[in-house]
Amino acid sequence: MKDEQQLLDKQQQKAGVSRRNFLKTVTGTAAGIGISQMFNPALVKALEKALETHPVIWIQGQGCTGCSVSLLNTAEPSIADVLLKVISLQFHPTVMASEGATALENMYKIAEAYKGKFSLAIEGAIPTAADGKYCIVGELHHKEITMVDVVKDLGAKAGSVLSIGTCAAYGGIPAAEGNVTGATGVMDFFKANGIKTPTVNLPGCPPHPDWIVGSIAHLLTKGVPELDENGRPVVFYGENIHDNCPRLEEYDAGELSGKLSDAKGCRMDLGCKGPDTYADCYKRKWNSSMNWCVDNAVCIGCVEPGFPDASSPFYEPA
Ligand code: SF4
Ligand code: SF4
């Protein structure tokens, strides 16, 4: 066993991934998942295998690319290691060097070659009005390809789908009041088009990089994780922010912050939506575990299906 560990350590070092750091990230995920096997070196092997057999195609619709930026901020393992050694990312409009018809042709080729096996990551909402013309993702053989076309085609061919961010999961900001583009989330789009591919929602505006990397690692090695009624992995979205907030004692004592710069006090009067929000931000924290919304402002409930309308105005009590 010791020899096997040493060998794996050497392999990981050679591959540029610190095994300790790599497992820290995934076991950080696993600690919540409660999958003790995640501590096992077999996970590393399983991911190596998945790298060859289970590509990921990432498409972008109606969004701000913030979810991709969040993924790029993943610290351990580094984004280079995630993209090259954890996820076999075959198509990503922002990250890849290829573009135009060549890139699109390659995307369709991968989808065909790995039909029923590849994972489709969808970032951004899908604008369904005007025959999908609000979001043209490319052109092939002098024909415009819309986000609607790609999601219908690849969504049905994929083995699993990840809706990355609140726009993809539930419509998010593009589907907010005044929505003229017919923006819709993946779940509703699939229902309307009879697509039954298993789908995991990873809402957040943006979602935490650990939620993305951890869910993809789980999908590749163990399949679809346990989901809540809104299609979110329970491991990341199973806890109520308010019930676990470090300021709960202050809330119970009636000590409320009067302004955002107050270091102490519950943010309820400033508009905190923690009581209606389910995510593990309070313990995972953001920016490499430096801080989180309630430290600096308020929770705006960005992971919930009604966001942003249900949370607005952000800085007024619910
Ligand atoms: S700051 Fe927000 S989440 Fe924390 S105790 Fe107050 S209302 Fe609840
Ligand atoms: S604390 Fe609230 S607003 Fe901030 S990321 Fe988490 S769920 Fe979204």
Structure overview:
The chain has 318 residues and is an alpha/beta fold. The protein has two domains: 54-235, NADH:ubiquinone oxidoreductase-like, 20kDa subunit (Rossmann fold), CATH 3.40.50; 239-311, Cytochrome-c3 Hydrogenase, Chain A, domain 2 (Irregular). It contains 15 helices and nine strands. The chain has helices at residues 2-15, 19-33, 42-53, 66-72, 79-86, 100-113, 147-157, 166-170, 186-193, 209-222, 234-237, 241-244, 248-252, 281-284, 293-296; strands spanning 56-60, 89-91, 119-123, 126-127, 136-140, 143-146, 160-164, 183-184, 199-202. The strands form three sheets. Strands 2-1-3-7-9 form a five-stranded parallel beta sheet, sandwiched between helices. Helix 4 packs across helix 10. The chain starts with a helix and ends in a 22-residue tail after the last helix. The model is unreliable at 1-5, 7-20 and 22-40 (pLDDT under 50).
Q: Output mean pLDDT.
A: 86
> Structural class of the helices, strands and pairings?
alpha/beta
CATH topology of the largest domain: Rossmann fold
Q: Over all CA atoms, what is the radius of gyration?
A: 20 Å
CATH superfamily of the largest domain: NADH:ubiquinone oxidoreductase-like, 20kDa subunit
Unreliable residue stretches: 1-5, 7-20, 22-40
Integer count of domains: 2
Number of distinct helices: 15
Helix content: 40-55%
In the CATH hierarchy, the architecture of the largest domain is 3-Layer(aba) Sandwich
Number of strands: 9
Give the CATH level 1 class of the largest domain: Alpha Beta
Please state the oligomeric state of the protein chains shown.
single chain
Instruction: Describe the strand arrangement of the main beta sheet, using strand numbers.
Output: 2-1-3-7-9
The N- to C-terminal Cα distance equals: 55 Å
Question: Which band does the percent of strand residues land in?
Answer: 5-15%
Ligand inventory: iron/sulfur cluster
